[in-house]
Structures are given as structure tokens and as C-alpha cells.
Amino acid sequence: MTPPMVAAAHHISVSHLHRLFARYSKGETVAGFIRRQRLRKAHRELADPALLALPAHAIGSRCGIPNPSDFSRAFKAAHGLSPREHRRQAQPEPTTEETQSTEPETQRAFHHRTAHLT
User: Fold this and answer.
1) pLDDT value, residue 90
2) DSSP secondary-structure letter at 25?
3) 39 near 63, Cβ under 8 Å?
4) What is the pLDDT of residue 62?
5) pTM of the model
6) Measuring CA to CA, how many Å separate 45 from each of 29, 51, 72?
7) Rounded to whole angstroms, how far apart are CA atoms 60 and 47?
8) What is the band of 1 on the pLDDT scale with cuts at 50, 70, 90?
9) CA distances from 107 to 66, 93, 95, 99, 118 (A)
10) Dihedrals φ, ψ of 65, to 5°?
11) Does pLDDT of 15 surpass 70?
């Protein structure tokens, strides 16, 4: 989405769109608004467990920022974290129950593999 696309969708000129934004947006430009919306969407998608297999740069591209460097720089400026750091922080920590359920299995496998060493 670009300012000309927004203007065309509303059947107004680009210059009129910019004047409207200048009047009602408290200083934000049309392009700045579009970028903010793209970064908000990326913020949500990076935290979505269903999209965990999708690389961060692909999410940036899906959200309209196809250059990985531009995406990373803009995301960090907007949110204070890199896309990778945000994704890491957004993923839930394994619960104690999940950790405990795999622990005995891991211990059995270890003892089975090392039994001949004793």
C-alpha cells in the first residue's frame, strides 16, 4: 500500500490525502502511518506461534517491507528490539510440567546409552 493507492481508493488526489493527514494526524505523514501499520502487523505475526517456522525476514516481506535490513532497522526503531529478539521474548517458556515430562525419558535414554561404561 502506498499513498497513491490510498488516494485512488478514496477517489481523491495524493496532495489532498497529504493535506488531510497534515490536518488530522498530529504530524504523522501518510507514509509514516502506513509504515507504522506494517510494523504493528509484523509485531503481531512475529509473536504468533503458528508462524514460528516462517523466517523473520519473510514476515517483514509479508507486511510490505521486503528488504530484510530495512525491516530489521525499522522494527528495532519502532519497538526497541530486533525482530528476532521480539520473537524470542514472545514465545512462552516451557512449563514446569512440560520440562518434567521429558526429564525421566531423557534420563532413561542417557542411562541406557551409558550403561556399558560402568
Assistant:
1) 87
2) S
3) yes
4) 93
5) 0.70
6) 24, 7, 14
7) 13
8) confident
9) 45, 21, 19, 12, 16
10) -125, 85
11) yes
On the question of pLDDT at 94 being above 80, the answer is: no
The single residue listed with the C-alpha cell 532413561 is 108
**For residues 40, 41, 46 and 51, what is the CA-based torsion angle, rounded to 10 degrees?**
170
Instruction: Indicate the residue type of 87.
Output: R
Helix axes 68-79 and 30-47, enclosed angle (nearest 10): 90
Show Cβ contacts of residue 17 under 8 Å, excluding neighbours closer than 6 positions. 3, 6, 7, 10, 30
Say how far apart CA 12 and CA 9 lie, in whole Å: 8
Find cell 502487523 and name the residue: 41
Which residues does 76 contact at the CB level (< 8 Å), separation at least 6?
82, 83
- Residue 26 predicted with pLDDT over 60: yes
